[in-house]
Design a protein that fits this description.
This protein is an alpha/beta fold. It is built from six helices and nine strands; from the N terminus they run E-E-E-H-E-H-E-H-H-H-E-H-E-E-E. Bound molecules: adenosine-5'-triphosphate (ATP) and magnesium ion (MG). It comes from Brevundimonas vitisensis.
């Protein structure tokens, strides 16, 4: 008997084939993803790099059930062909298994750091007590124990991004999507963030998919995938250096 650890797709958390995404532009269509095959493994920090407009955010959106591709399929965890499910089931899947971190933090202005994290856990069905315990632990893990009761307006950019990371990690997601998570941060805060993503992969076994422009982040990656003009042009495995330093240029 074999033990099923990660669903039907072995080590792959995501396996996508032939993704095509088109957007309407006047009377014609622009093809933004031109038949992309993509996979990502549990425990890997997979970096997706490429020029502005190459389709990185579009790829993440089609992989994560946010944007329906015109062609292709996405297998994730124990789901065969994500886009065949109803939108309600896709939303539920995303809530249960995926964490998201974006450049703009996406925090609720009125909520404290603790509440930002609790709200997601309660929405997932945890009791108030459990949500509070898990949220506190997640914020402590990112070094925000002393900031639990503060609202976004008085938090620094680096602290806000750490709240967003705690919110994404609190549910212990099997897949973590990060789109330019360090681009609004200085070197020191960028380093804190990329180390937390590294740790989510290594210690929590998450498949971390991180879109970035910053070649300095490659030092932490297990794999670097390059995309240009809607096509994967390079895919290299890499030995991460968890002690790499993201020097700040001032
Ligand atoms: N909803 C949309 N409607 C029309 N065109 C879109 C839409 N979303 C994205 N595009 C176009 O698709 C292309 C790829 O966009 P995408 O956001 O995926 O690029 P990106 O690689 O993430 O770029 P950046 O590094 O600037 O974030 C761009 O030319 C963009 O203008
Ligand atoms: Mg983008």
């Amino acid at each position: 008997m074999t033990t099923k650890v990660h669903g039907n797709h072995g080590d792959f958390a995501i396996e996508a084939k032939g993704l095509v995404k088109r957007f309407k532009s006047g009377k014609s269509f622009v093809e933004v993803l031109k038949g992309v095959d993509f996979d990502a493994r549990h425990g890997d920090l997979t970096m997706v790099m490429g020029p502005s407009g190459s389709g990185k955010s579009t790829l993440v959106a089609t992989l994560s059930g946010l944007l329906r591709p015109e062609e292709g399929r996405v297998d994730m965890l124990d789901v065969d062909d994500l886009w065949k499910m109803s939108s309600g089931k896709i939303d539920k899947f995303r809530l249960d298994h995926c964490g998201f971190i974006f450049q703009g933090f996406n925090l609720f202005p009125a909520l404290t750091a603790l509440q930002q994290v609790e709200v997601v856990l309660k929405f997932q069905g945890l009791s108030s007590g459990d949500a509070k315990r898990r949220a506190t632990a997640a914020l402590e893990e990112v070094g925000l124990g002393p900031r639990l009761h503060q609202r976004p307006t008085i938090l620094s950019g680096g602290e806000k991004q750490r709240v967003a990371i705690a919110r994404a990690l609190a549910k212990d997601p099997q897949i973590l999507f990060a789109d330019e998570p360090t681009s609004a941060l200085d070197g020191e805060n960028g380093q804190i963030v990329i180390r937390l993503l590294r740790r989510a992969a290594t210690e929590h076994g998450a498949a971390v998919i991180c879109v970035t422009h910053d070649p300095r982040l490659e030092a932490w990656a297990d794999r670097v995938i390059k995309i240009e003009d809607g096509k994967i042009v390079d895919d290299q495995r890499h030995t991460p250096d968890p002690n790499a330093v993201l020097a700040s240029h001032h």
